[in-house]
Amino acid sequence: MNFENIDTGCIDLESLPWIPFTPYSPEVMLKYVKFNPITDEMIVFLKAPGDMEMPRHHHSGTVIAYTLTGKWKYKEHDWTAGPNTVVYETASSEHTPVALNQGEVIVFNVIVGDLVYLDDNNNVIAIENWKTGMQRYLKFCEDNGIEPQDLTAFNG
């Protein structure tokens, strides 16, 4: 049976590139770690300058965000996330992330489902998920002569 062939994996983060979050921001960088097309999940690091503000977005699923460096918040909340804090977002949450000029922000994210980016009139301007992330990763690898890894594999 196939499940018997799935083994614990260890991912070398140094082997994965930082990729610009285009077309939204060339300054915000992503390091994709894992895509799971079965559960609609992606694991990704986000690195942003200390003065970053991203568009407001809606989550169709949950998000767990662990902050490694910098400080950030959502305009819609009164808490601040900093190093060694975990933010847990419920499905159907909506917010606007803002860095707080406390140095570069690096956040480890486990994202389930779609991120639906909205404009000021609540019009959908973009949808991001594991598939768009995979497309961005593969295009970046192709454009930069990098041999892509299979980020959907369970044992690597």
Attribute tags:
6-stranded antiparallel sheet, 156 residues, 9% helix, mainly beta, globular, 4-stranded antiparallel sheet
Descriptive notes:
This protein is mainly beta and 156 residues long. The protein is 9% helix and 40% strand. It contains 1 helix and 12 strands, in the order ββββββββββββα.
Task: Describe the SSE topology.
Blueprint: E1 19-21, E2 25-36, E3 41-48, E4 57-59, E5 63-69, E6 72-74, E7 86-89, E8 94-95, E9 97-99, E10 105-112, E11 115-118, E12 124-128, H1 130-143
Antiparallel strand pairs: 1-2, 2-3, 3-10, 4-8, 4-11, 5-7, 5-10, 6-9, 11-12
Structure at a glance:
This protein is mainly beta. It is 9% helix and 40% strand. Strand 2 and strand 3 form a beta hairpin.
Q: What is the helix/strand order?
A: EEEEEEEEEEEEH
Number of strands: 12
Q: Which segments are poorly predicted (pLDDT under 50) over 5 or more consecutive residues?
A: none
**Helix/strand structural class:** mainly beta
- Helix count? 1
Strand content: 35-45%
What order do the strands of the largest sheet run in, or round the barrel if closed?
1-2-3-10-5-7
Helix content: under 10%
Gyration radius (Cα, Å) is 16 Å
- End-to-end separation in angstroms reads 19 Å
Shape: globular
Mean pLDDT figure = 92
Main β-sheet: number of strands, strand sense, barrel status? 6 strands, antiparallel
